[in-house]
Design goal:
434 Repressor (Amino-terminal Domain); 23 helices; Rossmann fold; cytoplasm; GTP-binding; 3 domains; alpha/beta; 7S RNA binding; nucleotide-binding; 8 strands; Four Helix Bundle (Hemerythrin (Met), subunit A); binds guanosine-5'-triphosphate; hydrolase
């Protein structure tokens, strides 16, 4: 989990609400104080945190809420909305389109992770079916070309560069022209970084930018400097037309929250975050799912996207229909888990579902949790498995299933919470993303299909009742 410390503190603060029978001013203040402390410790700017607290108190006016109103949910929703506000730049970024020959220029200070991120970006789009290529216009640092070459080889992306030419502008122009002729539809230009924000670096960036006329300039920034990213992002924006930001090293830095919020305050959209040194340690950044995950409420859109990756196109509509009609049963969940398990995707999917994510190195815990859930579902009757009415699962049934499967009642309740979360996806979230995905022509990747059939899981997968 990215920002695991902040995640832990925020979820603890919200969980406290469940321990209280009456939600009064004191409980709300205690909860808000904890959230405030957690955000400040993550280096979020004081004024942003202060505004968040004021706004939440204004939204959650306990005195005016009618008796019986679900105060806990109103508080949770207000926290979610205010965090989204802090992290949302209000701007969208240019998105490369297949077949369009987009040119994307990467800029940033030395050591920010620019070269690594260029390759991660190329690989991300290669996996989406693009034909990306890399141009090394860093003639400042000896070895930059070789580093990018090595990375490019790993990511299986062609590269243009020179050991002898010293003019980065000429290399950039030649590289872009050459890849355009070869019909590459995403040409990524890596530029040199310097130790600090020197004028000479900005001048070089400006010249490369004028000469290559990029569709998008991406500023790469290291998260370890926290809220100081604000000044850095502004300085770069004033020199080149920065259209998007990628924040790196979010895996190791407690100040990541500060970095994300400070960049948003400059009205620059963060589009990806770097979460490690490896090529796959790269995540699309989307404010709402990120906040939901941070608050332990699950990454719904990530989950629905995953479903779309795994379910054949002709079945996606029906599957989403079941979800949207509220007909998603425990049996559906059981079969989904089973397929994920067989495909070795438990960790990937679990990180999208509230509370199932395990920190790096503890993935086994997630797997055990899924197994535990499946064992508990094995102790259910057909009526329980096939009902889409969560109310059917009353206290005595929960007790019986927990006892019968050798688990604690709390473990059973935790599973029911996850089920409700999945079953109510479309009710709680905007279905437009889902319907957009319906139209996407994504199929199960062939190698995955082979894998499922080898495991004999394809039959189960198809029997999930999604057809
Ligand atoms: N932990 C972690 N390390 C990263 C991440 N991104 C990059 N790095 C590491 O940061 C270091 C610097 O990365 P580079 O890609 O060489 O940085 P750069 O900005 O291109 O540097 P110059 O080419 O000198 O300007 C390398 O050791 C990378 O492996 C990340 O998201 N997480």
């Amino acid at each position: 989990m990215v920002l695991s410390e902040l995640h832990g503190k925020l979820t603890r603060a919200l969980r406290q609400l469940d321990n209280e029978t009456i939600i009064d001013e004191k409980v709300l203040n205690d909860c808000l104080n904890e959230i405030t402390r957690a955000l400040l410790q993550s280096d979020v700017q004081f004024s942003l945190v202060r505004d968040l607290q004021i706004n939440i108190k204004r939204t959650v006016n306990l005195g005016q809420l009618a008796h019986g109103y679900h105060k806990r949910n109103i508080i949770r929703r207000a926290v979610e909305e205010e965090l989204c506000k802090i992290l949302d730049s209000g701007k969208t970024s240019y998105v490369p389109k297949k077949g369009n020959a987009s040119v994307v220029l990467f800029v940033g200070l030395q050591g920010s992770g620019k070269t690594t991120t260029c390759t991660k970006y190329a690989q991300f789009y290669r996996k989406k079916g693009f034909k990306p290529a890399l141009v090394c216009a860093d003639t400042f640092r000896a070895g930059a070309y070789d580093q990018l070459k090595q990375n490019a080889m790993k990511a299986n992306v062609p590269i243009y560069g020179s050991h002898t030419e010293s003019d980065p502008v000429q290399i950039a122009v030649e590289g872009v022209d050459s890849f355009r002729k070869k019909t590459h539809d995403l040409i990524i230009v890596d530029t040199s970084g310097r130790h600090k924000q020197e004028e000479v670096l900005f001048e070089e960036m400006r010249q490369i930018s004028v000469a290559t006329n990029p569709d998008l300039v991406i500023f790469v920034m290291d998260s370890s400097i926290g809220q100081a990213t604000y000044d850095q992002a502004l300085a770069f924006k004033q020199s080149v037309a920065v259209g998007a930001v990628i924040i790196t090293k979010m895996d190791g830095h407690a100040k990541g929250g500060g970095a994300l919020s400070a960049v948003a305050a400059t009205k620059s959209p963060v589009i990806f975050i770097g979460t490690g040194e490896h090529m796959d340690d790269f995540k699309e950044f989307d404010v709402k799912p990120f906040v939901l995950r941070l608050l332990g409420m699950g990454d719904i859109s990530g989950f629905t996207n995953k479903v779309h990756e795994l379910v054949a196109v002709n079945q996606q509509h029906d599957f989403m229909q079941r979800l949207s009609d509220g007909n998603f049963t425990l049996r559906n969940m059981y079969q989904l888990f089973q397929s994920m398990h067989e495909m070795g995707l438990i960790n990937e999917v679990s990180s999208m579902l509230a509370g199932l994510a395990a920190p790096k190195g503890h993935e086994k815990e997630s797997q055990l949790k899924f197994k535990r859930f499946m064992i508990m579902m094995d102790s259910m009757t057909n009526e329980e498995l096939d009902s889409s009415n969560p109310k059917l699962m009353n206290k005595s049934r929960i007790l019986r299933i927990a006892r019968g499967s050798g688990h604690r009642v709390e473990e059973m309740e935790e599973m029911m919470e996850k089920y409700k979360l999945m079953a109510t996806i479309p009710k709680r979230r905007d279905m437009s993303a889902v319907s957009q995905n319906r139209n996407s022509q994504r199929m199960i990747p062939p190698q995955m299909l082979n894998h499922i059939s080898r495991l004999g899981g394809l039959k189960d997968f198809m029997k999930m009742g999604w057809t």
